[in-house]
Amino acid sequence: MPWDEDQDGPFLVCPRGHRGPFRYLEDIVCWRTVVRLVRSTEKHEHSVTDPGELAMEIEGLYKTGEGYDDGENWRLECRYSGPGVPFCGAEFPIPNGISLEFDP
Questions:
Q1: How buried is residue 76: exposed, middle or buried, by Cβ count under 10 Å (0-12/13-18/19+)?
Q2: Dihedrals φ, ψ of 3, to 5°?
Q3: CA–CA separation, 39 vs 90, rounded Å?
Q4: In whole angstroms, what is the distance from residue 104 CA to residue 101 CA?
Q5: d(CA 77, CA 100)
Q6: 99: number of CA atoms within 13 Å, CB side?
Q7: Residue 20 and residue 59: Cα distance in Å, rounded?
Q8: CB hemisphere CA count around 20 (13 angstroms)
Q9: 104 pLDDT band (50/70/90 cuts)?
Q10: pLDDT tens-digit profile of 20-43?
Q11: What is the pTM of this model?
């Protein structure tokens, strides 16, 4: 069971039996538009291609409301470390019936 309860109240339990601490994880996507594929004509300061090589021209600035998608794949990561366990790292879904509340 991903959570349990004792006299102090409810608590999370990772799949490996640890009581945390935990981190909330989500996959957030930041993106920019690919403008076109070109042949590089000269070496620029921030360029990784040499003249004549293929280069992808990418918009440099985000536009308001673009370039960011809300997170997906919500999950928890167990950060337990202790005797015989240098770092647990187990990831598991948010348990059913538990809602999320974010501190401001």
A1: buried
A2: -150, 160
A3: 45
A4: 9
A5: 15
A6: 2
A7: 42
A8: 12
A9: confident
A10: 999 999 888 777 888 888 887 766
A11: 0.65
Instruction: Note whether 69 and 31 are within 8 A (CB).
Output: yes
What are the DSSP calls for 13-71, one per residue?
A: --TTS----EEEEEEEEE---EEEEEE--S--TT--S-TTSEEEEE--SPPTT-SEEEE
Q: What's at 6, amino acid-wise?
A: D
Compute the distance between CA of residue 48 and CA of residue 40 in angstroms, rounded to an integer: 10
Eight-class DSSP state of 96: T
- The whole-angstrom separation of Cα 50 and Cα 93 is 45
| Gap between the Cα atoms of 77 and 91, Å rounded | 4
28 or 15, which is more confident? 15
As a residue count, the chain comes to 104
Token pair recorded at residue 67:
């370039």
Residue 90, pLDDT score: 95
